[in-house]
Amino acid sequence: MKKLPFIVLLFLAFPSASAQDCGGQWIFIQDRQPLGNREKPGLVYDDTAGHVVLFGGASAVQAPGGTFAWDGTTWTRFQNSNDPTTRLEHAMASRPGSTNQKILLYGGRTFNQFRTETYTFDGSAWTLQASIGGPPGIYGGALAFHQGIGKYIHFGGISSSGLYSDSTFEWDGTQWLPINIPGPTARAFHAMEYDPIRNEIVLFGGRGTGGAGYLGDTWVFDGASWTLKNVINQPLNAAHAAMAFDPSRGTMVMHGGSTNVWPFPANNQRNQTWEWNGAGWTAVNESNPLARTYMAMVYDAANSELFLYGTTDSQHYRYRWDQGPPTINPVGGSATADYPTCPLNLGVIATSGTPPTYQWYKDGVPMVNAARISGVATPNLSIHPTRASDAGLYFCRVTNSCGSTDSTSIVVNAQCQADVNMNGAAEPSDFTAWITAFNNNDSAADQNCDGSITSTDFTRWLANFQIGC
Fold first, then answer.
1. Is 69 helix (H, G, I), strand (E, B) or coil?
2. What is the pTM of this model?
3. Which of 25, 152, 337, 443 could form a disulfide with 390 if both were Cys (CB 3.0 to 4.6 A apart)?
4. Is the dihedral of CA 229, 232, 235, 238 positive or negative?
């Protein structure tokens, strides 16, 4: 039996969006050393040490302590680091470059106590800078380092008496100083981070006071004044969202949040990721949206990815961007359906920034799994046993958030195994043809498709002959 040559799969790209508009996917990280459930932890990146630093966070039943470093795979606890009292909803930020005030921490709360201390972290240990005298919003405020003016900036939060703050403060290295300027309304649990490309701090949303509820406004601070941005398409009002600047995209990225004091019911948790380009928000086209709140997010430069940790569980995630539609390379498969015994196996290998989806087509129609057909939504399609009706044109469509790529059509021809001499019919002369193939160790004699030629193939040829063509 003559085998048709393997048909090489090429690919054509038909993107549904440009690479800049593409999204990606949050990838779950299997944590080998879980830190416990930590809501609202402090999470920053230390560019000098090249790792993420976490402090604090708590759940309804526990308040695990410790300062930890994340290297992309493992948490390592700092030893002899003179940790502050464990807390949550504190404000924490880091500054680039070598400095003994690498990380600044302010405020927070425990289950029954408000914290008013200011601490700095030099990369190995914490130092208490002040016990009192900080911004009035001691928990639920936000902190960012403004590289343009070289100062840590704090905004908002809730006082020990329950009052929401609209105050802006700066840390000059030794003390907190008020910046008496108009700005956002009083709020807490807002998202805030520095944008180094546009040299401004970006603030979004939060929970307001005096009946304001959950907010959806966007403000920027240029180092001297706040400006309310006129945004047409913006995220839904939310608090407890996480924000970080992604230098690989040149955009501010914000994820999740909620519109309820507690993240229950689940539909109050936002599952969208948004990008801010300095002028407007764009919803990211995600292939697998992730609903989270009460978490923290940072850009992990050492691993070139956004890192998300914290909420009512101990799970953490990394974000992988799709930079374009998938590309496809060929993988082994047959272009001949040798029926009725042999299987037909077709496959593709796709390259994509995030796990893509697959769909196989026959003659332009999406295939479905059936008794003889499997793998229609995977890279590898299998049909076993084959039939004459399996002849046709096959291709696989591979899709990610940037678009789809179709393999070129694979021409599958059906060949009756009993028709050894390939004259179009199963007839007695095929017996002689099988004997000749057997003596010549020709693959046409392999009737049971096991890769070897033995006397059992004659029994299989008889069975195939009785089935006919």
1. strand
2. 0.74
3. 337
4. positive
